[in-house]
């Protein structure tokens, strides 16, 4: 209890600095426990073996389990020691889900199994080519893009997740709805990343650059009734600024620390 109280006073102090009101505590606890209850089901290696009636949602081209972005593989289906994981509703994934649901395994993106930077016995996990195609992750218009972005042969799902995390955060903070996310095209991950990259991961409101903690960046459609997705159709803001206006926005104390440290002083 002492630890929790200490965290809350730290959080309150931080939020005072960003100018938020202090009536969010209740929601903060709720949101956090909602996330924790799903995450608790996963084993320590970050996987969750099949559960009955697996319910996978497809939002903005990505695969979600109870509002958490997950990658999925099927046990004993792949050849040559390679384990192909899916993160999108590609045709092969849909086919496997229909025919081999009992061997489906969910993986959290922060799992070491998926981290290609970690030279471990698990580096035989490779992303599905169809999923990369579906989310337009292998289509680059300008050569200059290559130097700054994740490229197909270095696809790292954790890095990808950090870039896409705003979708998940907005979803479990009830800032957006699953119904709306379902209307977005399958290549929305690339659209979103292109918009964020165009704005250089810098909040248009407080000017913080969150390149060092990309999960703090949101690109919000200015008019979500128009099906147009050029970078100018988005406004780029940090989670801190969103929380000032929308108190239910989920944020961790580590993230608040980052904002307080790097937010430009007026
Ligand atoms: Zn796939
Ligand atoms: Zn900001």
Topology, pairings included?
Elements: H1 2-18, H2 25-39, E1 47-49, E2 57-59, E3 62-65, E4 68-69, E5 71-74, E6 83-85, H3 91-99, E7 104-107, E8 125-127, H4 129-134, H5 143-148, H6 157-172, H7 178-182, H8 188-198, E9 217-221, E10 234-238, H9 239-245, H10 253-262
Parallel strand pairs: 6-8
Antiparallel strand pairs: 1-7, 2-3, 3-4, 5-7, 9-10
Helix pairs in contact: 1-10
The structure holds zinc ion (ZN) (2 copies).
One zinc ion binds at residues 203, 205-206, 208, 237-238, 240-241.
Short description:
The protein is an alpha+beta fold. It is built from ten helices and ten strands. The chain folds into two domains: 1-37 and 199-266, no CATH class; 41-164, no CATH class.
């Amino acid at each position: 209890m002492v630890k929790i109280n200490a965290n809350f006073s730290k959080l309150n102090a931080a939020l005072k600095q960003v100018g938020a009101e202090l009536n969010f505590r209740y929601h903060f606890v709720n949101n956090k426990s909602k996330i924790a209850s799903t995450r608790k089901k996963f084993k320590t290696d970050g996987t969750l073996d099949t559960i009955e009636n697996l319910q996978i949602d497809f939002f903005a081209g990505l695969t979600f389990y109870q509002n958490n972005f997950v990658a999925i593989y099927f046990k004993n289906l792949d050849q040559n020691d390679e384990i192909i994981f899916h993160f999108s509703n590609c045709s092969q994934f849909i086919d496997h889900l229909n025919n081999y649901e009992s061997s489906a395994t969910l993986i959290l993106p922060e799992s070491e199994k998926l981290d290609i930077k970690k030279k471990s016995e698990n580096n035989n996990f490779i992303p599905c080519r169809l999923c990369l195609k579906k989310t337009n992750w292998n289509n680059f218009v300008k050569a200059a893009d290559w130097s700054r972005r994740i490229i197909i042969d270095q696809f790292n799902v954790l890095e990808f997740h950090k870039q896409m995390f705003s979708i998940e955060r907005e979803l479990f903070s009830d800032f957006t709805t699953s119904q709306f996310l379902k209307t977005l095209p399958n290549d929305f991950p690339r659209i979103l990343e292109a918009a964020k990259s165009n704005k250089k991961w810098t909040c248009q409101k407080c000017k913080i650059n969150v390149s060092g903690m990309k999960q703090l960046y949101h690109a919000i459609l200015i008019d979500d009734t128009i099906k147009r997705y050029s970078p100018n159709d988005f406004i780029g803001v940090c989670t801190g600024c969103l929380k000032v206006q929308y108190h239910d926005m989920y944020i961790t104390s580590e993230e608040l620390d980052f904002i307080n440290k790097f937010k430009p002083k007026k």
